[in-house]
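Sample intake sheet
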Amino acid sequence: MFHGSMVALVTPMEDNGALDRAALRRLVDWHAENGTDAIVAVGTTGESATLDMDEHVEAIRLIVEYARERMPVIAGTGANSTREAIELTRAAEEAGADACLLVTPYYNKPVQEGLYQHFKAIAEAVPIAQILYNVPGRTGCDLLPETVERLSHIPNIVGIKEATGNLDRGREVLRRCQERIDVYSGDDATALDLILLGAKGDISVTANVAPKLMHDMCAAARAGKESEARKINERLLPLHKNLFVESNPIPVKWALQEMGMIKAGIRLPLTSLASAYHDTVRQALRTAGALS
């Protein structure tokens, strides 16, 4: 249903933390011009944890409007409360999103049966296409392959963003779910290899600053052009690594500010990138041709 380079879009903010609508429009236009295959709105990289409900839904609505059918929009609507996740998912559907991305509940550590019932309840409550999101390094909660397999039989659960960075895990999910759902990488450093194993694309932080290269790399990998994909990925490797020198989205928002794309706004408890990392991230941008 979705494929290729899907940017986990930052939420640009004014210096005071308010949503910067003009910058958001510029970013969406830039991604459309550079081949980004889909936009993921208000996920982890979009600072979903610090937007209130009204801001969250407004950002989704604006991205849908700005994309103007040039790219599908996948709305981040996960929560650690099943009721809240249903409410957000319903609001995203009403805002015109093409699908929703649902992270595993964080902090409260549900067991696997709880995870199954959580995602099943959301899918049954809201008919929009839904993509599971497993990132245990941030949530403290791991959606195991056998639970993904159970969920893959629910018709409007259409994919999973597998962000463990573990290729054996990705391979097992691909084997268990076969053609029932699509698998997407959520880890830029291992995305190429997972696509070569059969994943349909990458939900990417790196694509925020290098959209064309990420699109071209994913397209080559999906076409089985491994040597071409690896050559492109070599230029991207410093970004894959150094956009995570501090917690995402701190480095990528600083990088976009350095490129003149957005202002410095970021919400506490996140802070601006420490000066010790400025040259490291700047050099990674230059290697990818994102900064002169």
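Comment: The first helix runs from residue 21 to 33. DSSP finds twelve helices and eight strands in the chain.
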